[in-house]
Design a protein that fits this description.
Helices cover 34% and strands 17% of the residues. With 436 residues, it is α/β, with parallel strands linked by helices. It starts with a helix and ends in a 15-residue tail after the last helix.
Amino acid sequence: MEKPLNFDNEYLWHPYAALHKGPSRFLAKSAHGTTIETADGLKLIDAVSSWWCMAHGHNAPEIVEAIRRQSEKMCHVMFGGFTHEPAIELGERLVKFLPEGLDKIFFADSGSIAVECAAKMAVQYQHALGRPERCKLVALKGGYHGDTAGAMALSDPDGMHVLFRGIMPQHYFAERPNCRFDEPWDDNDFVSMERVVSEHKNEIAAVICEPVFQGGNGMWLYNAGYLRRLRKLCDEQGILLILDEIASGFYRTGPRFAMEHAGITPDIMCIGKALTGGSITMAACVASEKVADSITNSKIPAFMHGPTYMANPLACAAGIASLDLFANRDYAGSVARIEKRLRANLEPLRNLDNAADVRVLGAIGVLELKAKSSADDILKVIRETGVWLRPFCNYVYTMPPFITSDQEIDRICEAIKLIGECEPAPVIEGEDEFHE
């Protein structure tokens, strides 16, 4: 075990981490259900669904078998000039699964690429209508949409990607909604967006946001009334609405998609992560008929994007199996159960000396700390409790697989509590191993 870890430390970069230094990494040996087993025999409950994608748990047998069967026929074929049955079947399933009116599907490699496609689609739509000057987007401060250049440009302008401003396109930003999900709606929360749109409406192709749940830049839950106002404003100004449901979709906040909290439908939406049950990378950018027809009937009728691995057959097979599981299991009931258990366990943590806030919605639980814990203390808690958590900045959160039992939720919440009770870490500039 020591030799591969030494090689890893010397040659392999990990997400948001430095080479050669930082806390020790676990060597994963296998993963099944809610548990990841390490090479040294440690069994860890995956409290973050391996970055929010393992909705059905690890190595769901139905998905593994679907990938195996497809691998015997065809692992990949280019989607340019070819189609194949797994892509067609997955498309058919998605049309039935997605909100009504969203049924023109562009398969992408990852969530970040789906966001890039959505932005390009919005700009091409405006171009098709004879409005090429509408080539900017509006996004929300505090948002996160991915790590590619176009997706970074739509994420929080003062967040983790500030280093790369020089290579990013410049867009417009409205203030993050401050009205909490469980508070009465306040119209003042929409003033910033109204002002930005009013000042730049002739330049704006679309507004993009994460509905209700802002994930990787703050784990923030905001009032669904904001989305209703946003839908109305976009309609009035001829601006498209893009909803990024990559993290919030597939029952994570309770309903099938987070937009259902507001009772609205966007013009374009992005999905990913749980689409294949986390088994293999795949995402999709889905448009309304209005958007698709406007592009198709224009001087440039082709949507100008085409990834090498678009509609990869193995990923499509995994997606079909994943949608079968979503159809056959009562995940709405499971998420309601998890939410109740998280709320009961986490609400008392408001009394911790270092607690700044507690937020719970669906299968999402967040303890916001006044000051973050040290990486060493976090690793100690992980080893002692057998719970894998991945805090970032001041946020200790859980987004467990939907198959997680009540007893496992209790263990997860106990681990969160123990991290919250740790002494705050000294501030060392540039050191943040546990950042998304």
